[in-house]
Amino acid sequence: MTYLIQPFNWRIVWKYVVLLMIPLGIAAIVPLVYALLLKDWYLSFCFLLCSIIVYIVSKYLRSNIPEQTFKYREGLVIVAVCYPIGAGIAAIPFILDSDISWIDAFFEAMSGVTTTGFTMLQPESLAPPLVLWRAIIQWIGGIGFILMFVGFLVSAGSPMAKLFVPETQQERIPLTLEKIASVIMRIYIFFTLLGVLLLFFSGMTLFDAFCFAMSAISTGGFSPYNDSAIPYPSANVKLVLIFLMIVGAIHFTLIYKSIYTLKSPHKCIKRLIFNPQLFTLISSLTLVFIIVYLYNGSAQNLNLFFTIVSAHTNTGFSVGVALTSLPFFMSLLIPIMFVGGCIASTTGGIKIFRALIAFQVLYRIILKPFLIREEITLSTFNSERLNEDDIRKIMSLILLQGGLIFIATMIFVGYGFDFFSAFFDMTSALSTVGLTSGIVDPSLPTSLKFLLILLMWMGRVEIFPVFILCYAIFRKGI
Predict the structure, then answer these.
(1) Mapped to the 3 state alphabet, what secondary structure does the chain carry?
(2) How big is the chain by its Cα radius of gyration, in Å?
(3) What are phi and psi for residue 476, nearest 5 degrees?
(4) CA 95 to mean position of chain CA atoms
(5) Which of 75, 248, 325, 476 is spaced 20 to 30 Å from 189 by Cα?
(6) pLDDT tens by residue, 66-76
(7) Which residues pair with 74 in a beta bridge?
(8) Half-sphere CA count of 83, side-chain side, radius 13 A
(9) Distance (Å, rounded) from C-alpha 37 to C-alpha 30?
(10) CA distance 438 to 224
(11) Distance between CA 102 and CA 120 in Å, rounded?
């Protein structure tokens, strides 16, 4: 029997998990105040309960567990545990609502904190504080994943860490990995408030503007309406949402770099144009739209482009495009949902960074028989050479994502769903998109709802932390 080589500190894991729940407990005060203004005393109690639970548990752990540093393996488990715990806390107001079953409540909360956007509820039948809560948990889920990715998943000195640090000798940008969290938070809040203003002046009510802006920038996709974004057919609203979705899918430190170099427009434009992830994102959006335009004609151009952006950024907003009547369009959406947006963004999927590395690996495999040994080059990204271990991890993640989608698809097929629709929805679930062919609805069996919850969770944390968590739980010597 094998054992973990190094001891695993569960106490520090639980301490940091609960500390990361504090923003959720604080955020519950917003719908609490809103419920009080509406004189909805029962909902006020529900949100107060969320805050009290987080406060009591966090205070107990902070006073009983001394300050300690955690290792990389503990960081992975912290990330894995955060989402089901956060979903459990976020589900409390839904669970206490007598009209919502506990499984649908937990599904809704997990869909929110993972920024997926699948729903088992009818938003228009919910009390306004609950609608606002749905948007808030997505907003927290979006920024929370970026901060946890930077704090717990990126090893200092690795090529991936260099993607986060916008400091070079030539540019002298005063930012370190430790300070990136605060920079990202300020950018996130700025674009959220900008989105609220733009949506409000485009014709939305202030309440809807807040809900849509928080869901769009977090690439979550929750809407205050049963029909997603359909109630707002205005072209201005759609363009603002497209802008917010794309911002949410961009590498957030790239946004910082661009803002920092605004004094030099030439340098700023050069940075944006030649960034490989952003260039790939814009190019693939344009290419897919051109293909759809040539195939489908000029009908619904803006709606089709909106849906393409919604899929590629893993947001999941819908504007009424009947996906099941456009199988060719659906087949184009599947790969861009699978890839998602840039690394260090709010999107799901494997990320453009990994897709580009995978293409390099395939190119090397194809090219290798035609080259002498000395001419074979290693994979690089932004002039940074990736070692073979990094490449193996990237390729393993991509294969695992694909394998899980296929297995989940076959389970749904076993329940009588057709393969193509199930494959589309499973890709959407694991990539935390939220677009559906119609399969995901409240009538699903509980077992399939659990499967979707598992996919949303694993897709949000990028699989490996869940495997490490399972290993830590079921192996001895921990």
Answers:
(1) CCCCCCCCCHHHHHHHHHHHHHHHHHHCHHHHHHHHHCCCHHHHHHHHHHHHHHHHHHHHHHHHCCCCCCCHHHHHHHHHHHHHHHHHHHCHHHHCCCCCCHHHHHHHHHHHHCCCCCCCCCHHHCCHHHHHHHHHHHHHHHHHHHHHHHHHHCCCCCHHHHHHCCCCCCCCCCCCHHHHHHHHHHHHHHHHHHHHHHHHHCCCCHHHHHHHHHHHHCCCCCCCCCCCCCCCCCHHHHHHHHHHHHHHCCCHHHHHHHHHCCCCHHHHHHHHHCCHHHHHHHHHHHHHHHHHHHHHCCCCHHHHHHHHHHHHCCCCCCCCCCHHHCHHHHHHHHHHHHHCCCCCCCCCCCCHHHHHHHHHHHHHHHHHHHCCHHHCCCCEECCEECCHHHHHHHHHHHHHHHHHHHHHHHHHHHCCCCHHHHHHHHHHHHCCCCCCCCCCCCCCCHHHHHHHHHHHHHHHHCCHHHHHHHHHHHCCCC
(2) 22
(3) -80, 170
(4) 24
(5) 75
(6) 666 777 778 78
(7) none
(8) 34
(9) 11
(10) 19
(11) 11
Residue pair 31/90 in contact (Cβ under 8 Å)? The answer is no
Tell me the one-letter amino acid at 353: F
Q: How confident is the model at residue 129 (pLDDT cuts 50, 70, 90)?
A: very high
Please state, in angstroms and rounded to a whole number, the distance separating the CA atoms of residues 285 and 311: 10
Which residues neighbour 158 within 8 Å (Cβ) at sequence distance 6 or greater? 390
* Residues 259-295: b if buried by 16+ CB within 10 A, e if exposed: ebbeeeeeebeebbeebebbebbbebbeebbeebeee
> In the predicted model, is pLDDT for residue 186 greater than 70?
yes
Backbone angles phi, psi at 23, to 5 degrees: -55, -35
**Separation of alpha carbons 56 and 7, rounded Å:** 28
On whether the CB atoms of residues 165 and 175 are closer than 8 A, the answer is: yes
Closest CA to 215 of 119, 125, 279: 119
Distance between CA atoms of 16 and 58, rounded to whole angstroms? Answer: 9
Q: Is the pTM of this model over 0.70?
A: yes
Q: How far apart are CA 124 and CA 103, in angstroms?
A: 20
**How many Å from the N-terminal Cα to the C-terminal Cα in the chain?**
13
Distance, CA of 411 to CA of 240 (rounded, Å) = 38
Angle at 402 between CA 215 and CA 467, to 5 degrees: 80
The residues facing 385 across adjacent strands are 380
C-alpha distances (whole Å) from 321 to each of 9, 227, 334 are 49, 11, 15
Chain segment 304-332, per-residue pLDDT in tens: 999 999 999 999 999 988 888 888 999 99
| Model pLDDT for residues 14-60, shown as the tens digit of each residue | 888 888 888 888 999 999 999 999 999 999 999 999 999 988 888 88
